Amino acid sequence: MGHALVIIAVFLGAVVVSATVALAVTVHRLRRPMMLSPAVRVPLRWRWSLARQAVLHRRLLVAIGGVRLELPRAGGAGPWSDLIAEVEALALEVDRELVAVESHPRPIRQKAMAGLEARVREVEQVAGRLGQTLGSLEAGRPGRSAAELMERLDAIQGALAELDAVPGASRSSGGPSARR
């Protein structure tokens, strides 16, 4: 009888441990796509919630996701990686504030949301513009005609000539991330 109780206890312990691990993995997989970064933990209910802060968080995810989707097409981003990191840092900062505002009482939360909504809009605009820029870097993709490539090269040469004409301007700065 004693051996049977030990076997049952071990079996029940294994079932409890397995269920706990399965639950933890499920929660992690549900939460992971909702995070801009593991540093900011958002409430799981934001996945389906229609609360303003949840909607703003999802808008940040979409904006940064658009930039991240353009990275492979831009060939690893090169000199643009600093700008991408800055946009992601800006989005993380706003996301942290959204999570912090979640715990405030409703009147304070509503006042804070107006400013946060404007900041989310700014992140969306910056990310959209950066995504368009990264998307336009695909000059070497198959299917472009020689005339299109020549037109782009002419535009680049014209821009470089304008830069040379500006007194004190230097083209050796290494790209847009060096000139702020």
Task: Summarize it.
With 180 residues, the protein is mainly alpha-helical.
Describe this protein with a few key phrases.
180 residues; mainly alpha; 5 helices; 68% helix; elongated; disordered C terminus
Gyration radius from CA atoms, angstroms:
25 Å
Unreliable sequence segments: 171-180
Report the span from N to C terminus: 78 Å
Biggest beta-sheet profile: none
What is the 3D form?
A: elongated
Oligomeric state: single chain
Strand coverage percent: under 5%
| Helix and strand element order | HHHHH
Secondary-structure class? mainly alpha
Query: Helical segment tally?
Result: 5
SSE blueprint and pairings:
Elements: H1 2-31, H2 52-70, H3 81-102, H4 106-136, H5 146-165
Helix pairs in contact: 2-3, 2-4, 3-4
Q: Explain this structure to me?
A:
The chain is mainly α. It has a domain at 49-165. 68% of the residues lie in helices and 0% in strands. The chain is built from 5 helices and no strands.
